[in-house]
Amino acid sequence: MAKNNSILSAAVCLLGLCSIPVSADGRGPGFEKSCRNLEKTVKSKNVKPLFSELVSAGTQLVVPDLDASCQNSTTVPVDICRLSLNVTTSATSDVLMEVWLPKDWSGRFMATGNGGIAGCVDYASLSYGASLGFATTGSNNGHSGQNGTRFLNNLEVIKDYSYRAITTSAAVGKDVTAKFYRKAHKKAYYLGCSTGGRQGFKMAQDFPEIFDGIVAGAPAFNFQGLMAWSGRFHTIISAVGPDGVPPPSSWAAIDAELLAQCDHLDGAVDGILEDPSMCNFRPEALICKPGDTTGANATCITGKQADTVRQFLSPLYGLNGTYLYPRLEPAPGFMPFIAGAYTAQQFLYTDHWYKYALYNDPNLDTSNLGPEQWDYAYKNDPTGVRTYSGDLSKLASRGAKVLHYHGLEDILISSASSNRYYDLVSRTMSMSSSELDNFYRYFRVSGMSHCRGGSGASVIGNNFQQDGSLDPTENVLMAMVKWVEEGVAPEAVIGSRVVDGKTDYKRIHCKYPLRNVLGFNGDPKNPEDWTCTL
Ligand SMILES: *[C@@H]1O[C@H](CO)[C@@H](O)[C@H](O)[C@H]1NC(C)=O
Ligand SMILES: *[C@@H]1O[C@H](CO)[C@@H](O)[C@H](O)[C@H]1NC(C)=O
Ligand SMILES: *[C@@H]1O[C@H](CO)[C@@H](O)[C@H](O)[C@H]1NC(C)=O
Ligand SMILES: *[C@@H]1O[C@H](CO)[C@@H](O)[C@H](O)[C@H]1NC(C)=O
Ligand SMILES: *[C@@H]1O[C@H](CO)[C@@H](O)[C@H](O)[C@H]1NC(C)=O
After folding, report:
1. pLDDT tens digits, residue range 108-152?
2. CA 15, CA 159: separation in Å to the nearest integer?
3. Secondary structure (H, E, C), 257-322
């Protein structure tokens, strides 16, 4: 738009006589006015704007009245127009969503997913998307707060959780974006991890027309299997009793033994397992010898405790031996995690899923769920939330892409579930990895726990990190942009180990089924000394 033209319209506007269109990239004097007018522009029967506001770069945004289980603050990284909407999805359900429209717009659209049993807008992802110039949307996934009570006798709320919050926020978000910038977006992306990873695969499997590029991490897919598996830890712990679980005094020794048995398998003794699927941890090696300290201060374990460890690290089988969910891949720290997450009471997500979504009985005793209940969950599978189709042919044929990653120190969702899904896709579509490479690539990220953190090079740009790189070789979101827009697909993902704001080292994370191996006499901190091999 010609400069003189905008100066003129700005002057007219000062007199209150106009509505200045925002220029195509979001810059220019129309930005503020368009933002103020946005509520009127996008209102419709099912779309109720709650407010729109300009938020300038550096603002510490604190969202009032959020459920206490939700993160309510984030630093807004760039100038945005922020729009909050209440969207009706059925007579008995609604989705709260926000669209963040950056002043400096890249022409791209992005939807973001949720975590856990959902109920919280992921403000950190909104910030991340906006900082990179995406018009970005996020929703509460159809209910407020990290619990499942709203599922009770309401299949519509489950449907929002299963997929409709994403399809809705994508449709409304794209519409808002086009109206605001007066120009449709160029490409649409999706970013999510955990439940967000499942939502991404739901889109890939059943709604492949919505996104051009999907980045999905640590997916909670095979959701019925996952909920059964998550609930089993509590059941095991209850059944073996307090002296059946290795005491805290033994946990460091368990980690040390696990590393002694498996750390060298990738050629590097560095505390990080590059391929935990190769680790057949043998806890019997820790059984107490005569004279060892036993009881509450033991660093060795009893035979019964070794059996419990084996149960923790075993796959889940259902009725008649049906394989439901793979084992937890061994990783240092698994004992404190399991003891912390599953000891006192049934895991909240499993508890609520069975009570409110599956059995509609708030008084259901979920402490001892077993094969009958798991089978019921699989058969019932409300609104197809299981998310486990291996057929990505529609996505492939329209040229959309999926980048899948999973942290190998993830104890909340086993990375083995991701390996298993990739193999399912390969079999279902009867395609080798080189064919799948055209639209679906999966990277195993060593040293990453659930979606972030961990002991290794886990900074990969899957969420905002102060010290993260934007280089597509080191940033999965920008890698996806390059794949979609330039046709250049990532061969590997380079992760960074960042300590106190400084990069300690970088490491290559290989494309499944390849695994990372350190060459003879190699330096684990030198990425060049590693090779992706079969
Ligand atoms: C935001 O969350 C924090 C921590 O839960 C809480 O202390 C604070 O009161 C909340 N602020 C608002 C405005 O709701
Ligand atoms: C959203 O709209 C629904 C249906 O009109 C209403 O029940 C709900 O309270 C609204 N939520 C908010 C936060 O305004
Ligand atoms: C679930 O969340 C709602 C909304 O925050 C809260 O009122 C309720 O007490 C929670 N229920 C349980 C069982 O956690
Ligand atoms: C365990 O060790 C602590 C500290 O050394 C000691 O106070 C305690 O009595 C010991 N407990 C048992 C059961 O040996
Ligand atoms: C398990 O076996 C029983 C008895 O043979 C059969 O009735 C049932 O349908 C089987 N269930 C599954 C899930 O295969």
Report:
1. 999 999 999 999 999 999 999 999 999 999 999 999 999 999 999
2. 48
3. HHHHHHHHHHCCCCCCCCCHHHCCCCHHHHECCCCCCCHHHCCCECHHHHHHHHHHCCCEECHHHC
410 as an active site residue: the answer is yes
Q: 266 CB under 6 A from ligand 2?
A: no
* Contact indicator for 298, 286 with CB cutoff of 8 Å: no
Alpha carbons 350 and 229: distance in angstroms, whole number: 9
Cα(64) to ligand 1 centroid in Å equals 7
Do residues 495 and 406 touch, judged by C-beta distance below 8 A? no
Q: Is residue 484 a part of any domain in this protein?
A: no
> Cβ neighbours of residue 189 under 8 Å, at least 6 residues apart?
108, 109, 110, 111, 134, 211, 212, 213, 214, 215, 477, 480, 481, 484
- Whether 361 is a known active-site residue: answer no
367 included as an active-site residue: no
User: How many domains does the structure of the chain reveal?
Assistant: 2
Residues 47, 140: one domain? Answer: yes
State the distance from the centre of ligand 1 to the C-alpha of 318, rounded, in angstroms.
Answer: 43
Same domain, 232 and 152: no
Q: What's the pLDDT tens digit per position in 39-85?
A: 999 999 999 999 999 999 999 999 999 999 999 999 999 999 999 99
Please give the single-letter amino acid code of residue 417: S
Maximal CA-CA distance, the chain = 91
Q: Which of 450, 455, 458, 469 is labelled catalytic?
A: 450
- For the beta carbon of residue 67, count every other beta carbon within 10 angstroms: 14
> Are residues 175 and 230 part of one domain?
no
CA-to-CA distance for 386 and 144, rounded, in angstroms? 22
* 8 and 122 housed in the same domain: yes
Query: CB under 8 Å to 207, separation ≥6 — which residues?
Result: 163, 166, 167
Asked if the structure places residue 441 within a domain, the reply is no
Tell me, yes or no, whether 165 and 244 share the same domain: no
With beta carbons less than 8 A apart as the criterion, state whether 427 and 390 touch.
yes
pTM of the prediction? 0.94
Among 160, 185, 210, the domain-final residue is 185
Does the residue 476 lie in any domain? no
Helix (H, G, I), strand (E, B) or coil at 45: coil
